[in-house]
Amino acid sequence: MTTERVAPDSEIMAQDVEAAAAGMLRERAVAEGAVGERLRAVWEEEPGFKGFVTTVNHKRIGRRYLVTAAFFFMLAGIQALVMRTQLGSPNNSVVSPETYDQLFSLHGTAMIFFFATPMNSGFGNFFLPLMIGTRDMAFPRLNALSYWIFLFSGLFMFASLPLGMAPDGGWFAYVPLADRLAGHGLEFYALGLLFLAVSSTLGSINLIVTALKMRAPGMTLARVPIFVWAVVTQSFMLLFALPPLDVANAMLFMDRRFGTQFFVESGGGDTILWQHLFWLFGHPDVYIIVLPAMGIISSVIPTFSRRPIAAYSFVVLATVATGIISFGVWVHHMFAVGISDVAQSFFAAATLTISLPAGIQMFAWLATMWRGRIVVSTAMLYAVGFIITFVIGGVTGVMFAVVPFDQQVTDSYFVVAHFHYVLFGGAVMPMLAGLFYWWPKMTGRMLHEKAGMWSFAVVFVGFNLTFFPMHISGLLGMPRRIYTYDSDLGWTVWNVLSTIGSYVLGAGFLLTLGVFAESLLRRRWAPDDPWGGNSLEWATASPPEDYNFPVVPTVHSLNPLWDDRTLPSMVEHRHDGVRTMTDKHEALRTSELDARVEEPMAMPSDTPVPLWLALALTLCVVFLMAGWYVASVVAFAVVAAVAVYWMWDRPDVEEIEEAA
Amino acid sequence: MSRIGAEDHSTFSPVGPKADFSTTAWWLLFGVAAFVCVVVIALVVGAMISRRKAAKVREGEAKGFVMTFGVVIPAVVLAATFALSVAGIAKNAKPSRPAALKVQVVGHQWWWEVRYPDSGAVTANEIHVPLGTPVELQLTSDDVIHSFWVPAIMPKLDLIPGHTNDTWMTVDDAGTYRGQCAEYCGLQHAHMAFTVVAEPEAKFQQWLGDQADPAVQPTTAEERKGYDVLTSGSCASCHTVRGTPADGKVGPDLTHLADRSRLAAETIPNDRGHLGGWIANSQQIKPGNKMPPQPLSPGDLTAVITYLESLK
Amino acid sequence: MTDLTEHEVLVRPRAAPEAPAGRTTGWWAMVLFISTEAATFAAILASDFYLRFSAKGSWPPTSEKEPDLVLPTTATVIILVSCLPMLLGSLAAARGSRAGGLLGTLGAFAGGVAFLVLQIVDWLSEWPDSTVSKDAYGSLFYAITGLHAAHVLIGVGMLAFLLVSLAVRRAAARPRGPVSLVAMYWYFMGVVAVAVYVTVYLSATLWATR
């Protein structure tokens, strides 16, 4: 990290001193000095409430995704605590069976759909543009729309609980039970997930296009950070995994409301069709949740091992391969359905294959650590916690490929233990690592590291105490989704341990919240690059300016902040109009494979239109739920009208009209 | 009959070839898995400790290490795992000798209908099988998907409406083993258990013969009164007592109710008090079950209980 | 073809000046959108075949009559043919010709409207014999054709938007502009129409199992 190659002129020397005092990278200081003021004027958004609802800035939207998803995590976590309390002793009656069924159904649905995936979207939204050195997402207004739809679909889904109409068919809502359950829970489920899918689809397109077309010059495919690879892979997976789920949910809704016969045996329908469609989404979804989280780990470990990641190309291949193979293993969720022996063998083999890419990543991280010089931080501890829990979840996952064993433990607490090790260990721990790692970048404040480490310890112990005993209760024959059990079956002690663990885990999360709150209250300002990180987000201010990069740098390596040329390129290009784009709201478009400069492209300014569209769509969904179909069609017409207004008001068209 | 213990509902104490295989597979898998976990955890914790004070960062991509430990060694282990899996699939496909007895199990919310089609015996929540011989099982469901699971005897197989899943089981040790529905099937999924009673051939044939017989005739006045209440009242619209006009198909067959050790899919013991409580208001005991409370006069209720208790 | 003559020096060909170079973000967005929509149609068409082949009896069920082929065949041909004016229109718009763009778009628009009208007439003629709730066959018939028709309706809306755009805005006619994006969607509608036609109509008549 030297700037010897840049001819020092007086301007640079003067700013150097100032920059060091403010924790600024000197190259950024020079670049800000050259164009910062003009950019701030161009990129400034409306202040106050108006700005809050009209913003299209990827960092504000990303932050909102994180906060909203964390909020849903808390709600779903509280539901889990109620369930654990109910199971804390045999024949307990803290909640009724009706409530218990709603709790576990909504807990799973919320954690998978309204926490894990949007949390990844939050990290992706905030950090993908920063990591690739651009100023915003490819479609900022679409980005705002994705967020609002996510928020409203989450509120829609959670509103079902106080109404006493929460989904009660489990998170995978098997028919014919889901076709027959009384009440409106399954309609909330089907509509809520369809509604959310709009957000996920738009968000995925946005992330992919951003990563393809907006990487800083020089960031060829071989220099793309693994986190970005992971987010792009995940987004592609969503584009192909959501459709079967959408089709299944639409069929479920129509079966319940319009008397269609898709899943009705007597009407020529088939109950197993649901399982195929659902798991064709459901298994890729495990990796949709886990891959970006593993991408976070691939960011944290090199930084705190003080060296580039080992076997980068293998890790990238493993990431992409995971995405592809994950579409070929769904039937291992259905080994107890009574499928043919040939199909069982095939899907057993596919299931085994998918553990190879995971092994590659695991040993690449270990190699990075063993060849590095480790700095212990809370983020790094969470990365270690992730490796430990994920390997346990991974080995139990491999066990499911032994079909007779799978049939023995599927739908038992063994599976509950397994997927919490995979999803909590594989996603929540990396997300916490990511929060501790990027907190200074997001908030501009440092965290209390000691307290953070204690919070990690409590979360780690609480997690293992909650979920490890479930392996044993499952092997002792305890099926999942039972609201109570008898005392003479030998399950009591393991359930008591789990329940105690869940309270410890809850306390760990409270402690973590406390650590975050403390940081927000104190004024421990963060420098630009507190960890000596390797990727481009650390070349921005903490928190980043609205335009992220005053000068779009030229990326010279996979670890741009650790080479000698990338940062100085911000100084070099500070008078280059294409790199600074100071006149208009613009971002740089580059080529897909080798990131050559194409042209600056117009970016939209803040606008309330995405919010209007999301609100109109919400009305459409609410009317469908209420059974007011005509009103729903009218609301959809409003959606179309807002969309027309939106498309008419395109910034690039205005630019061209002006130019012509 | 003594209450089922923990060991009668555990994958750790297998009593048949299918569960045997799963348990053996488990211990093999557990050994390998524990070894992998210990190695990885040792590597990561070791790195955290020993590389903190490392003098310098080492260069290099470590591709050989990643390939060896991430791909080559796992591939060998996974190939062995696959062999184990295929061996298990093949072993479980057919019993070692043809099954002599056929049992049909029909899942209902939330109880198990058990039929012996060759003899005409019908019972509920209790499957008697002869010891040491393969039994053919035909599994289906009347309403939603359930899953047939007897951890000590055999892994799960689903009961799916409109489909019949054929399988088999063999029990090698005499005893009573607990099974439970393993696919979430609605409100009382938690109370949908059953037992498998494995007994010597002669004893089993005796039992089967008894079950195939129609119900015994009421002998005492009280029993006759119970018979009248049952056959003329709402009971008969849902329950069958073979040999009487009661031929309802909704609830369990009651022809030999008194032979069963527990009621309501293993929810309560089969004794006078519990039986009476169940008939009067089963919703208190198993909320949401399909049997409505029976507003019988105390005299009628006692008579019905007495009659049902006579149905050996 | 010309042969080289002695002493001739070939001049390096110059690539046509591309302005702007490279694929746009809009192009990628449309490609990805079409991909995910294609997966949606794949999922519902696969469901049709799944239910057909897991059905124990005949397909269509004996209580259903085989669909009439005249209307759907006409409609499918119309939407396919309407891709041609769409192509010509988008090429014209790329050259900067608003008139050509307008004309082509109008052709596709007319094809789309005609398709929708025929589809509705077809539903009305099928409804007396088969409803959505009669059996899974009926449910699939209306769900698949309905999903496609809804997409065509949205496409017709896009075309209408284009028509107005082209009429009042110079910028609407430009290389890689909105006409080329809507055109991609429209070709996709044509391809899906064929897939739907084969799955819902042809396989229930020509390849019916009675």
List keywords for this structure.
heterotrimer; A: 660 residues; mainly alpha; globular; B: 312 residues; Immunoglobulin-like
Q: Which fold name corresponds to the CATH topology of chain C?
A: Four Helix Bundle (Hemerythrin (Met), subunit A)
Secondary-structure element series of chain B = HHEEEEEEEEEEHHHEEHH
Q: What value does the average pLDDT of chain C take?
A: 90
Largest sheet of chain C: none
- What top-tier CATH class of the domain at 221-309 in chain B fits best? Mainly Beta
Q: With helices defined by DSSP (H or I, 4 residues minimum), what is the helix count of chain B?
A: 7
CATH homology superfamily of the domain at 221-309 in chain B: Cupredoxins -  blue copper proteins
Major interchain interface with per-chain residue totals: A-B, 88 and 91 residues
Low-confidence stretches of chain B: none
**Rg of chain B, alpha carbons:** 26 Å
Assign a percent range to the helix content of chain B.
Answer: 25-40%
- Strand tally of chain C is 0
Total helical segments of chain C: 6
> What portion of residues of chain B belong to β-strands?
15-25%
What is the quaternary state of this protein? heterotrimer
Structural shape of chain C = elongated
Account of the protein in words:
- The complex is a heterotrimer of chains A (660), B (312) and C (210).
- Chain A is mostly helical and 660 residues long.
- In chain A, 67% of the residues lie in helices and 2% in strands.
- Chain A has 23 helices and two strands.
- Chain B is α+β, with helices and mostly antiparallel strands and 312 residues long.
- Chain B has a domain at 221-309: Cupredoxins -  blue copper proteins (Immunoglobulin-like).
- Chain B has seven helices and twelve strands.
- A five-stranded mixed β-sheet of chain B has the order 3-2-1-5-8. Chain B has a three-stranded mixed β-sheet with strand order 4-10-9, with helices on one face. Chain B has a two-stranded antiparallel sheet with strand order 6-7.
- The radius of gyration of chain B is 26 Å and the shape is elongated.
- With 210 residues, chain C is mainly alpha-helical.
- Chain C has one domain (24-57, 65-208): Cytochrome c oxidase, subunit III, four-helix bundle (Four Helix Bundle (Hemerythrin (Met), subunit A), Up-down Bundle), CATH 1.20.120.
- Chains A and B meet through helix 5, helix 10, helix 12, helix 13 and helix 14 of A and helix 1, helix 2 and strand 7 of B.
